[in-house]
Each structure stands twice: as structure tokens, then as C-alpha cells.
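A.,

Following up on our hallway conversation. C-alpha cells first:
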């Protein structure tokens, strides 16, 4: 009798968990940046940089701020790699253009942003979106930060 009760209880427990999953089993679907889209963004950034006769670094991070692409062009200036990488990470993680963070520090006096880990208040980082969902961040670093802002904004449009 005890075995039959335990078997019945086990079957009930299994049916509750298998046929009535808790909300913790829910899966959230969101778009991600695929290879073709990433290549289109990189090509657009390279084309714009070439048209402006600029050499630099290009970085792309996924939505979690993990680097998935990096390239340093031959003839790029010293340490453009570090700058491009932090710009891409900040744009992805904080889902905004890094020039806006720079303006918050410089024009609005929000110097506390300098203490936020992974925050990069530098011009040249831009969020990448698919269907209005941030799927990553683009960071471009050339000798001219103002031009970096224009390059990333234009390159990000390659996703649309």
C-alpha cells in the first residue's frame, strides 16, 4: 500500500511539473545580431572611414557587452583598440550613444557617471538595434571623436 501511495504521489508530482511548468521555466525570445548583420555594420563603418581617409578600430559587442568582433586597421593610431572596445561595451550595456554619456558629464556636470563600471563617456559608441531591441553595441575609434559619432550612427543604420 505504501509503495502504491508513493508511486501515485510521484506521478502527481511529475504531472504538475511537466504539464504545468512554473514561470521560472519560461523562455524569453529576443532578436540577436547575426553574422550577416554584423558584417553589414562593419562594412558600413569601414566604407565611411575610408571615405573620410581615416584609419582606426572597430568593435562590436553583443547585448551583454561581450565582444564578438574587433578589427584594428593598418595605420590606426595608438590605443584605438582600447577605446573602441569600451565604447562598444558601454553602448550595448547602457543601450545608448556614448556621446550622450559624455554630454551628461561635460554639460550637465554628472561626474558620478565616471565611477560607473564599464561606462565610457567618449564619442563613438552606438547601440545596435533589431526590431527596436538592443542586440549589441558598435564602437569606432579614430583620431577624431566628433567624426566617430557620425560614423557609428551611419553604420548602425545598416541593420534597418
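Then the amino acids I'd put at each of the 160 positions:
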Amino acid at each position: 500500500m505504501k509503495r502504491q501511495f508513493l508511486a501515485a504521489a510521484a506521478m502527481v508530482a511529475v504531472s504538475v511539473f511537466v504539464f504545468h511548468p512554473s514561470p521560472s521555466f519560461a523562455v524569453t525570445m529576443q532578436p540577436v545580431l547575426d553574422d550577416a548583420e554584423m558584417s553589414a555594420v562593419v562594412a558600413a563603418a569601414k566604407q565611411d572611414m575610408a571615405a573620410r581617409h581615416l584609419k582606426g578600430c572597430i568593435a562590436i559587442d553583443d547585448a551583454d557587452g561581450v565582444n564578438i568582433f574587433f578589427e584594428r586597421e593598418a595605420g590606426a593610431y595608438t590605443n584605438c583598440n582600447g577605446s573602441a572596445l569600451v565604447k562598444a561595451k558601454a553602448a550595448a550595456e547602457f543601450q545608448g550613444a556614448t556621446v550622450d554619456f559624455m554630454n551628461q558629464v561635460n554639460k550637465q556636470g554628472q561626474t558620478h557617471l565616471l565611477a560607473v563600471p564599464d561606462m565610457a563617456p567618449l564619442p563613438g559608441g552606438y547601440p545596435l538595434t533589431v526590431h527596436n531591441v538592443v542586440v549589441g553595441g558598435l564602437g569606432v575609434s579614430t583620431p577624431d571623436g566628433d567624426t566617430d559619432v557620425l560614423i557609428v550612427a551611419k553604420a548602425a543604420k545598416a541593420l534597418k
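The radius of gyration is 23 Å. Curious whether your intuition agrees with the design.

B.
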